[in-house]
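Appendix B.2, paired examples.
Example (i):
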Amino acid sequence: MKSDRLLSSLMLLQAHGRLSTREIAERLEVSQRTAHRDMEALCLAGIPLIAHRGASGGWELQKGWRTKVPGLDDAELQALLMAQPSALGDRKLTAAAQRAFDKLMASMPTSMRLHADSIRARLHIDPTGWRPSNEDLSMLPIVQDALARDCKLTFLYTRPDGDTNTRTVDPLGIVCKQTVWYLVAQTTEGTRTYRVSRMRDAVTLALPCMRPPNFDLATYWKQTTVKLKEHKHPVTTTLALTDEAVVSTERWCPMVPALDHRASRTLQKGWRLFHVQFENYQQARFVVLGLGSRAAAIDPPELRKEIKAELRRMHRANNAK
């Protein structure tokens, strides 16, 4: 939008001093003619711009003039800089947040901006974990749209056990935990949490959503995570998987190659070894049994025992019929 471009031009001049029309055009990815018209538009709007002619000319704000922002003390500035755009994880969200962040930084007084630059040079936030993330955030913009418009949202949702059903909900908020995004929504069965990467075919409906009175997203999330920790007993397993099984498993479970495991020397051709994390033994047993002949449990021994016991029970049940 032109208004965004004009504000961006103003922020650039505040941050960098004199800039040529060519430099402004390159930074904003527009033609030099458009950049020149934007400078003229700023002048007509009352912005005190000085046009310098000649080979070293360009555009410059009148000395001492800048847009005003409320002052920040040191504690506020440091807290703001701790929330760097890179912490969002998603590439598109990071890019949009970085543009807004740069505009805010440029609008600060020179002394504060230099102090902020010094802090940023000594702070780096890496949003990725040690394990590769397979989060699919393609549905996130649609979720955000439904939240912004206070409209109902419908989507296909796949649970960790592979069961897929249609959900129609009243979206209440989104939560980002590290690089994993969740939708908190009201359903006919109460408030529920959905992992955005497990959503498909999301559509914002032209129906208003019903928001519970006095609902507080932060309070709900804190209470939910406390309950989850009380019932969650994660287990890390070592599985031998075929290529087909790898594709199926990595969509739902954190996994990394087990390169130095003792079992790697006896693997069949076309199989690979992975450390795979599950929410509990029940989920691990369900997934391994569901993969059938495409997977084999290596560790821990307890999981192997549970799978063998389940196979014996299945064998007896089938023979009984």
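Example (ii):
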Amino acid sequence: MTAQDFILKSYQTTVENGSVKWESPSNIALVKYWGKKEHQIPENPSISFTLSNCKTITEVTFTKKESEGFSFDVFFEGIKNEAFKPKIQTFFKRIENYVPFLKEYHFKIETSNTFPHSSGIASSASGMSAIALCLMSIEQILTNYSTLDAPDGFYNSTYFKQKASFLARLGSGSACRSVEGTLVVWGNNNTFEGSSDLYGVKYEEEVHSNFQNYQDTILLVDKGEKQVSSTVGHQLMYGHPFAKERFAQAHDNLAKLKTILASGDLEAFVKIVESEALTLHAMMMTSMPYFILMKPNTLEIINKIWAYRLKTDSKVCFTLDAGANVHVLYPENEKASILEFIKTELVSYCQNGHYICDQIGLGANQIEF
């Protein structure tokens, strides 16, 4: 598929109004993407676990209008939110060629999260993918097709999800990995046939039973806004002294992870995942300007996990997004013991003792009225 395949050729203009609703999960990258080219194209491929409980729920109501230009209101957690409007405006500008009906309707966007916004749990990924999926459902209405009755090669479910992922990427890069689950690959690479820079691709390779229902408990070290946005962080990879080596490392780790996921080698999984997390933060600390998003309690948690693993031979590990919070990853058969470990040794390092229990999920869902 190319970008041209996602351009909407024609649609009805007789639909006066309607409403659609989707819930879309966050995701946590195992191999990280850091650095992007023009048009939200990643500098290196990534692969992520789709989460289950950490999600954004978005309803979009659309009403035909006569005036020109984009027209929308955003409500977050039931309150009108002007701060979100510039990002949505930018998103609409980027996707207008692919969904040209945007200027013909006023949109009321009502959204909420099941987790703290802008705290390193990829709220932009779940949020932008939820909006993209709503727009795709509106496109279905305006083209009078469903994924079941559309002509072959046009509106089948594969096309719907690919275009939703494509649109989501133009809002937030990692959002393209939130449409499907349980594992999603994004970024052209030689390891996975059919991989693309334009959208996330569902992982269809063999996955060992060790990784079924994999658990992710998110320790909320800092629930405040990040000091540096991911957008700024990605830009600092331009001219970064270690960028070329990092991009090559990501390709190598992706290939290694494919073998690990098939074999069920949990020790090798731990090494790749933790190395990727620390490399991501190393890129931040060695950029110019440099910055540190980890907090002292982040490091305390990491050291506690290492000590626990050494003592018990557990296969628990950590990963981090571009923030201070810690994702504690572990096999389902260790759930009871790891939750006890978290409660007794790690919860004291969380802000107000807060943490979220999650696991890998199947992707986004449309909510029927």
